[in-house]
Write a structure and sequence with these properties.
This protein is of the alpha/beta class. The chain has 14 helices and six strands. It has a domain at 17-184: P-loop containing nucleotide triphosphate hydrolases (Rossmann fold, 3-Layer(aba) Sandwich). Strand 5 (172-176) and strand 6 (180-184) form a beta hairpin. Bound molecules: guanosine-5'-triphosphate and magnesium ion.
Length: 301
């Protein structure tokens, strides 16, 4: 079993930053809007379909029409994504695997939402009532691409986006033509992340601030996974030798620092610089497509 010590320690030390009041408020605000919306788009990260589940949503959204949207598929291992699609096909919930950077993926969302509303709208029409505006709420963990998706759907910069979690601070209704409205909401996590791997996966994919988990932990964890899953990419991208790959992750990080000249004045290795470098390379997709959660029973990497 993995020791939860460091992650827990860093989270406990920073409790104030960890579950800020605005997340609790965001959860209440979300629940408060549900009566007004027809369909909820719950966005998850395609690289971590399990770790990006906020169980609080299960409770809040249990009576709502919901579509699960797994975003950032262009960064996920496509074979693993295919397995996930297979597994979701067996479940009784509409879902889409998309990438908000791809225009063509966007075209599936509105037709699916309208299809979900069809029965209700048909009964409206039968009674001579014009179906009202389709109102959709977009929710999910932080930094998963909620606002990017809204911008893509609306074809303009309707809402702010950014690479760090917590960019959207308030709810915001965005009009899409004459008959659709989308509600952007702040990202929400749950108060206590019990599982060590879940915390690190949320950290690596950007849902939790680096300062909370720590760039040292994140980069070591990432190297461990890259060693197993994408050793060739790791080796070639950072000009490592095949012997280097047999080293411990901490030592591989040092090799990368040497190769990339991450040095402090005086020549010592600049650990924080190399940690940030590898995290940035990974997040920009330069190290290859990587999935962390698997649909089969053994979810371990
Ligand atoms: N590669 C890739 N990057 C994406 C995708 N969707 C969003 N991003 C990037 O992910 C980061 C977060 O996007 P946002 O749209 O701000 O995410 P959010 O869920 O609204 O985040 P919060 O408002 O902080 O909760 C930005 O840097 C986006 O450019 C995607 O599908 N693929
Ligand atoms: Mg946002």
């Amino acid at each position: 079993m993995t020791s939860p010590s460091v992650l827990e320690k860093s989270m406990n030390q920073q409790k104030i930053n960890w579950y800020p009041g605005h997340m609790l408020k965001a959860k209440k605000d979300l629940a408060g809007q549900l009566k007004r919306v027809d369909v909820v788009l719950e966005i998850r990260d395609a690289r971590i379909p399990i770790s990006s589940i906020n169980k609080d949503f299960e409770e809040i959204l249990r009576h709502k029409k919901r579509i699960l949207i797994f975003n950032k598929t262009a960064l996920a291992d496509h074979l693993v994504t295919r397995e996930w699609e297979e597994s979701y096909r067996k479940k009784d919930i509409p879902f889409l695997f998309i990438d908000a950077m791809s225009k063509s993926h966007m075209q599936k969302i509105l037709p699916l939402s309208r299809k979900i509303m069809q029965q209700k709208w048909t009964s409206f029409r039968r009674r001579g009532i014009r179906p009202p505006t389709l109102k959709m709420l977009i929710c999910g963990i932080p930094n998963v691409g909620k606002s990017s998706l809204i911008n893509r759907l609306s074809g303009r910069k309707a809402t702010e986006t950014g690479p760090t979690p917590g960019v959207t601070k308030h709810q915001d209704w965005i009009k899409l033509g004459n008959d659709v409205e989308l509600l952007d909401t702040p990202g929400i996590l749950w108060p206590k992340i019990e599982d060590y791997d879940t915390g690190l996966r949320l950290g690596l994919t950007g849902a939790i601030k680096d300062s909370i988990v720590g760039t040292s932990q994140l980069s070591i964890y990432l190297i461990k996974i890259l060693k197993q899953k994408l050793p060739v990419n790791l080796q070639t991208f950072y000009q490592l030798t095949s012997e280097d790959l047999n080293l411990f992750p901490e030592d591989i990080l040092h090799k990368i620092a040497e190769n990339r000249g991450c040095l402090k004045r005086g020549g010592a290795l600049d650990e924080s610089r190399v940690e940030n470098l590898i995290l940035r390379d990974f997040r920009q997709g330069k190290l290859g497509r990587l999935s962390f959660d698997y649909p089969n029973a053994a979810n371990e990497l």
